[in-house]
Each structure stands twice: as structure tokens, then as C-alpha cells.
Amino acid sequence: MNMRRVxxxxxxxxxxxxxxxxxxxxxxxxxxxxxxxLSIGSLNDDLLYQWVGVSxxxxxxxxxxxxxxxxxxxxxxxxxxxxxxxxxxQGPGEFMAPRALVSSGNRLFVxxxxxxxxxxxxxxxxxxxxxxxxxxxxxxxxxxxxxxxxKAFETGRAPxxxxxxxxxxxxxxxxxxxKNMPMMMDLVDFAASTDGFFYLAYSHMDRLxxxxxxxxxxxxxxxxxxxxxxxxxxxxxxxxxxIVYKDIALDRSGHIFILGGSFSKNPGRDVYVLSGDGDIxxxxxxxxxxxxxxxxxxxxxxxxxxEGITLKKYxxxxxxx
Amino acid sequence: LTVHLLEPGDKSNIIAFAKDRGRNxxxxxxxxxxxxxxxxxxxxxxxxxxxxxxxxxASLDGKFCLLMMDAESxxxxxxxxxxxxxxxxxxxxxxEERVQGxxxxxxxxxxxxxxxxVRILKKKMAGFIQANSLKFSVYFDEYxxxxxxxxxxxxxxxxxxxxxxxxxxxxxxxxxxxDELLSLLLDN
Lengths: 321, 188
Known about the structure:
Number of strands of chain B: 5
Low-confidence stretches of chain A: 1-24
Number of helices of chain A: 1
Radius of gyration of chain A: 19 Å
Largest sheet of chain A: 4 strands, antiparallel
Oligomer: heterodimer
Helix content of chain B: 40-55%
Helix content of chain A: under 10%
Distance between the termini of chain B: 29 Å
Number of helices of chain B: 8
Mean pLDDT of chain A: 89
Order of helices and strands of chain B: HHHHEHHEHEEEH
Mean pLDDT of chain B: 71
Shape of chain A: globular
Strand order of the largest sheet of chain B: 3-2-1-4-5
């Protein structure tokens, strides 16, 4: 039998999956199963060059930022490019290094790694306005149609997640980490749950946290037993050069998905699945290295392939979890 | 054009390189003489020999700039900004005729002749060039001919025959370096 032919035809990709939890079902019975349902971008087309952020609206349209051509792209649920906008620049609707985005209501909130604030587009990618936040926003989540949680790059102060209105007004802030953490753009990745909690995965230390809306630590976990990461001196700064956790995402049931970095057996591919209480339920391995995880409202997982020229969408299902 | 150092055989990378530069008359000569790409340009010395032998014949007024980009630098768009600043200062015709981009593959796992990785980088570079309206062509140094000439990151090697100079510049350039490079390339 020709395995090269059979494997792509198999609709189920049983990619994973050792259950590691100490409680509940046995490790043999706990699995996360990925079924590839969509692939956008390939070596044979010009749809994506280096996608960075992804979000999905309530109708299933997929929005992607692409750093290589300074654009924001909209795809339908079948992966057809519906519209593309953006060009290089710092004016309305322009990007220098488009990064995170989130769909909320009928709007898209898009950040730029090199330009402070947040740009707002409608679902047809028509530019609406700029939220005048005087900070570089590196990650963003929608708490409601009019409230956003932002991770911003700041110098000279303890790291924090800002809760802002869609006019840029800071409503509250949630501190995390320690004051003496290195000055880096990406110290943590976070996910916000619908019941008001924040889940943090630290980039350069073995720490996962669940914080209340007020910033109180509900729990703190270590998964990998990493004591310290390698550092390097850049100019007068000592900066970490290894990443412990690359991203974090929540599924519809409140399971926590953590993408492992340098210390995982398969860097950028191993995903740890935790319960809302922080107990590890299972691990699985992505087919290709990704920089991020995104899970939509329909429990589909979006990850990178082909070093950013391909976006893969998998339907998630669980066995024994 | 001297080709006697080169071995007979199949088509070579250097032919594609010459074609990229739009000098089909030269590549025609080369095609009749050259074969094995590995043997052809397996050392930076031969590569330089080629450049110094062929380029001055092509109405370049003896001025030419190689933009060396290590493959990893292409994965970081903000890291390419200094390169774009340099390119924006060049008229289109100068980019087309006097600048040649070379993507160099280093020592990482992806840089060891991984054809998929090379194809991915070509795709990314195509998007980047289109989005920035760049006019110079890019050669992907899959056989690591130019590796020894390229430091990590982005650099420029300027050939100026009038002044008998070959000079390397490492990006990001300070304003003085940028002025000097532009002056030598544009002959201001």
C-alpha cells in the first residue's frame, strides 16, 4: 500500500498523544485528535508570505496579518481570499510590522509591532479608526465588544496587562511577573477566559499562571522543570535566548493549550493540554513548527506551517478528556 | 570572458545568475562551457573571480553592489528596515543594474540544502520585494558559495572599478557609511 498516498487521504490525523495526568482517565485513554480541515497558502500560490496573527469572526471568516507584505487578509471558511488591505507605512490602514489581531463584534483590532496603538477595521477590512494608546501592543484579546486586554511593551516599569476601552482609555491593569524581569517585548503570552480569568504562559521562565480579573494569582504551575534559560549580552542588556513557552490558548471548554518552546522535546510543536485548574491532561505534537496557537469558537485549532506561508486549521476532538 | 577554470557538464547556478542580470550573451557562452554547479563556484574565490571577470563587461561602469542577506534575517521584517532605507535611496535603474541580492544559507538545520526551506524563502522574498517595490534581483546561494563572504545579518560588498576598491559594509549603516556607499555606487 502506498503510504504516501494513504496518509494525506486519512481525514483523521492522530498526531498525539500521551495523557500525562495523574488523575482521572489513564494516560492511554487521554488523547487530543486533530483533523485537518483547511490549509491556506502554499509554495504554489501567493496567499501568505509570513503570517503572524490570526482571528476568526462569528461567521467563520478568517483574518490574518502578514508581516512580509504589510497586510491584513480576509479568507472565507473555505480558505478563499476575500480581501486584502494594507501597505507599508504608518498612516491609516498601513503597517510597518502587523502583528496580533482580534475579531470582536463586527470589528477587527490590529496591532503593529513597530507602531504604537491599535488600528480598528470593520469586517470588510475598511479602516475605521486608530485607538491612541501610546504603547507598542504585542498581544490583544477582546473581553467584550468595547473592552480589550492588551499586553504592551513598556520600559522602566513592572509588566502589566492593560484593560482598555475602545477609545483607548485605560480601565484597569493587571500586574504580573517581577519588576526585575528583562526588558523584552515578549515576556508572557496570555489568554482571557469568558469568566474573567487570565492565563499566562511565561516566555523565558517555567511558569504558568491563572490570575483573577483583579490580578490575584489563583494558581501557578511549572511543567518542564526548567531552572533557568540561557542568556546573552546585547549591548548593556542581558537578554534570554531560549523560550520556555511560546503561546497559550483556551478552547471552548476551558482547557488550556500551551505551545512549548526550546525545552520541549519538539520545540514549537509540542502542545500541553491542561485543565482549568492547571492539571496536565495530555500532550500532542503538531506536524510542523508553529509560533502560535489560536482556537476559534467552533473549537478549531489554527497553527503555522511551512515557516509562515501556510495556515493550517484542525478540528479538535478529545478522547478521555 | 574567461571560462577555462570552469568544468564542463550540466547547467550551472552561475548561468541562472548571469541570466538574472540580463546578460544572455554571456550566459550563452557559459552554457556551452559549464556544467557542474558544485564545481563551478564552490569557493568564494571563484565567485569573486566570476564577478570581477564578468561584471565590468556589462555596462555597469565598474560599479556594483552585492547585498548579502543571511537566510535568518529574512524571517524578521523589522531587521530588514536598514536594508530598505538603503534601497529607497537608490534610483530604480541603479537597483536593477548595479545591485544584486544574494541570500546566504548559514549553519542552521534549515540551511543545509533543504530544498523546501529554500523554496519557502524564495516565496517570502518574492512577497517582500513586491510589497516594497524593490527592483534588484535575488540569487539564492543554495550551494553556499558566498557563505564565507557574508557575516550574520545583512551586508553589502561594493565593487568600484574606477577606484580599484572592494569594500564591505555591515548593516545597519551609520549615516556616514550610508553616504559613502551611495557615493561609491552612484558615483556622486
